[in-house]
Amino acid sequence: MLLLACDAVLDTRRAALHGLALGFLERAAAGRASSGSLMFSDVAWMARRALLDDTGLRAWYKGRYDAIMVDEFQDDNLLQKELLYLVAERRELPGRAGRVPGPEELRPGALFFVGDEKQSIYLFRNADVTVFRGLSGELAASPGGLGTHSLAVNWRSEPALIEFFNATFQRILPAPGDESARDFEARFEPLGSGEPTPGVESLALYLEAGDAGAADGDGDGDESGDEGTDGEPGQALAETQARRIAELVRDLVRDGVPVAVKGPGGSKIARPCRYDDIALLFRSAGSQNVVERHFRLLGIPYAAVATAGLFAESVLADLYAALRLAVWPEDRAAWAAYLRGPLARLSDASVARVLAGGGGAFSAGPELSGDDAERWAAARETWSGLRERADRVPARELVSWLWHERGLRWNALRMPGNEAYLEHFDYAWSMAADADARSLRLADFVAELEGRMGTVEKLEDVKAQRASSSGVSIMTVHASKGLEFPVVILPGMENVGRRDDPPPLRASPRFGLSARMSAPRGEPGNPVAELERELAALDRESGAQVMDERLAETARLFYVACTRAISRLYMVGRLPAHPDAEGRSFRGLLLKAWPWAGKACSKDQDPLPARPDGPGPAFGCLSIAP
Q1: Cα(214)–Cα(478) distance, rounded to whole angstroms?
Q2: What pairing do the DSSP bridges indicate for beta strands 512-515 and 153-154?
Q3: Which letter, b or e, does each residue of 202-239 get, where b requires 16 or more Cβ atoms within 10 Å of its Cβ?
């Protein structure tokens, strides 16, 4: 630690770094403003700056609103809190330019915040749970402040499930009085419950598939960390999970398992389970298409939330480049994308040689050798086939031909973890079918796509064809926030999320801005961030886990996922190749609470701890046969 401290203190480049970062941020913000492409954070910052500097404008807004209620405030941040404080400042105060009022300067009863720190799950949108956690003390110090009012009873879930939630999250989340907990960790207090619904047997069950030891890859970049180079063992276990989930859904409905639903007057009653009562909540949608395929095989109706990011992903970009080149062979950008894309797969040197020769698509035959010569011939055959079919067959058939017969589907599946892109074909096909229904020419269809390519907008106006518009709900945990379902299934419990590289810049409350930089010893690193982590470890009890923001949010995400369930909670996972003592996965968190629920990993030879005797929550574990 002393060496880290010396590296951090003696590095004279930090001051220059601050100036460089500030200058970059200012120029980037000015560029966005001049182009009219502001982000939400830009708009919020500009609003704060206007209210902060213009006391006349602030006085006008102070007089406009008597009271403000903000729901889901655990997903907001300091910038948004300061905006609200500026508007809620006492009207008789003139306000000081450049200064945000403190809680003692707020109007009595002007602000009312609603939220649950355990449900703060938008760190990637800059949500800051520490701001919400500090509100109760601040508002208690304001004139007329009423402090915090807790809603301690969960009326949604059955008492047996609430018993499981309490027993589980008391072992995962820190208690309110835990002085070693970090500010960004949500505190947990046991929940109360209502009366059980007569005729309903509620439970929590963990189902585990297989042994991932045969697929013992290093896991870098893979969400599960369990697939080998070719991905086959991991894919087989994903198929086993998906099949068992489909069978579980089928059996729940076929057997008419009683679940609690809202009856007349809002009270809960028991009735046989329907497909609409069931929700699959994915941490990420990496294996969603596998589950959907097994649903189709068993004739299970389902409805998936609208896709996002379709126009920024490579699957649609490759389809778009091929279709555009068929319509406009002289388009150099489409030509370059086609040559480098999966339908040609030419080397960089060959792409440069072809483009340097000038002309449009396949206007000349460059001298290529080896694999590139064969790939050129195949790419030309694909392009010629597209040209012959354009406006002679429906656009949806062109999309299917490129996907199934010219190798786009193979390209999407050749890398482990790319299965999620299969659904993008469904949406591309549906968009083409919609264009056919409107009698658009291929050029018109391509022109419609042009304005959307590269954006991250959601595809709301076209839905992928499904067996039914209703049925089992399929969505991410984030999309389920605020919803409830009689039966919740959590697939992929072993998913540890993406192993992102350390960020180049990091802000620390203790040390401020720091960066990864070249070092005289070893690889580039950030000694300031490492020192922060070491000091955080000293703040914890001896032997306690070092916590960071992402681990804390994973625990909150698991809480949100579990508490969507009313009657039954099924958690489905597989035995990973590597242990997860940190709790990066839902499975790791489950084992933290219930060590007897499964082995740490496929290499673990230690016997499982015995399940404690005596009464406990309605929680059990089962193995899934391959």
Answers
A1: 32
A2: unpaired
A3: bbbbbbbbbbbeebbbebeebbbbbbbeebebbbbbbb
3-state secondary structure at position 487: strand
Report the predicted TM-score, pTM, of the whole model to 2 decimal places: 0.70
Provide the pLDDT for residue 221.
Answer: 37
Question: In this predicted structure, which of 245-249, 454-458, 553-557 has the lowest mean pLDDT?
Answer: 454-458
Residues 6+ apart with CB under 8 A from 100: 52, 82, 85, 86
485: enclosing H helix or E strand: strand 485-490
- What are the DSSP E strand ranges found in 316-418? none
- Map residue 325 onto helix, strand or coil: helix
Cβ–Cβ < 8 Å for 128, 74: no
Beta carbons of 211 and 161 less than 8 angstroms apart: no
Largest Cα separation within the chain, whole Å, is: 82
Provide the β-strand partners of residue 280: 474, 489
Do 288 and 426 meet the contact criterion of CB atoms below 8 Å apart? Answer: no
CA separation (Å) from 353 to 356, 368, 379?
A: 5, 9, 16
CA–CA gap between residue 360 and residue 329 (Å, rounded): 5
Q: Tell me, what's the pLDDT at 538?
A: 63
Confidence of residue 506 (pLDDT cuts 50, 70, 90): confident
Question: 386 burial class (0-12, 13-18, 19+ CB within 10 angstroms)?
Answer: buried
| CA distance linking residue 164 with residue 571, whole number of Å | 13
- Rounded Cα–Cα distance for residues 193 and 188 (Å): 15
Residue 458 has which token pair?
Answer: 């959601």
User: What residues pair up with 15 in beta bridges, in sequence order?
Assistant: none
Task: State pLDDT tens for residues 456-495.
Answer: 455 555 555 543 447 899 988 988 988 999 999 999 999 8
Above 60 in pLDDT, residue 354?
yes
Residue with tokens 């810049």: 505
Instruction: Give the C-alpha distances (Å, rounded to integers) separating 158 from 75, 269, 279.
Output: 27, 11, 17
Q: Which two tokens stand for residue 395?
A: 């656009």
| Contact in structure between 265 and 249 (CB atoms under 8 Å) | no
Residue 221 is classified by DSSP as T
3-state secondary structure 237-292: HHHHHHHHHHHHHHHHHHCCCEEEEECHHHCEEEEECCHHHEEEEECCCCCHHHHH
Mean pLDDT of 372-396: 92
Strand, coil or helix: what is 524? coil
* Separation in Å, CA 163 to CA 193, 202, 208, 563, 619: 9, 11, 22, 11, 10
